[in-house]
TrEMBL record:
Gene expressing this chain: Aplp_1
Matching PANTHER family: AGAP008810-PA, VITELLOGENIN DOMAIN-CONTAINING PROTEIN
Domain of life: Eukaryota
Coiled-coil residue windows: none
Name used for this protein in its record: APLP protein
Xref: Pfam families: VWD
All residue ranges annotated as the VWFD domain in the record: 1-166
């Protein structure tokens, strides 16, 4: 157990073999955090302190790009939301749940995902000696170096002021893919 000293978005866990899932802890404005979960072309962003979540299913988007928020009726990802808890999972044994009352989120991986993931949550291979692996495959015992190695964005202390402009449906798609702090395409 360690304190996350970074105020940047960091990769918690990613399947680097099959790309079955990605979990990122995003640092939002005003010291608020969100959890970005990607599975089966579906993205859910969970805001534990606000007790809300947003879902996007990129496989349902049509050429006109009119709708971003989609129901998960035809998705291979399941979602359950209770009064104080949300859980998302897929048929391949990946589950992410957040308990809003306790501000606690968990990531659970079935045995099928043994040893295929890496990130701040470790390598998931039951080997204590390689939990502090950095992206280049080397190891560290320094918490700050370990945390910084898994950052997914560049952090700056000064926020840039952007000129607001009207957003069309296509601009909104571009924003999700290229401007959102959690986007892997940013």
């Amino acid at each position: 157990m360690y304190d996350l000293a970074s105020k940047c978005s960091v990769l918690l866990a990613k399947d680097f073999v099959h790309s079955a899932f990605t979990v990122i802890l995003n640092e939002e404005t005003r010291n608020s955090r969100s959890l970005y979960v990607e599975m089966n072309q579906t993205v859910i962003t969970i805001y534990p302190r606000l007790k809300i979540s947003k879902m996007y299913n990129f496989s349902f988007m049509e050429e006109n790009c009119q709708v971003l928020d989609q129901s998960l009726e035809n998705s291979t990802m399941n979602s359950r939301q209770g009064t104080n808890k949300i859980e998302v999972s897929d048929q391949k044994g990946v589950s992410v749940s957040c308990d809003f009352q306790y501000d606690l989120c968990t990531v659970t991986l079935a045995g099928w995902h043994h040893g295929v993931s890496a990130g701040l949550l470790g390598t998931n291979d039951n080997e204590a000696g390689n939990e502090w692996m950095v992206p280049n495959g080397s190891f560290t015992d320094n918490v700050q170096e370990f945390t910084q190695s898994w950052q997914v964005n560049k952090c700056s202390l000064v926020q840039k002021k952007e000129k607001p402009c009207p957003i069309t449906a296509k601009q909104n798609i571009c924003k999700v893919f290229f401007e959102e702090p959690h986007s892997l395409l940013r």
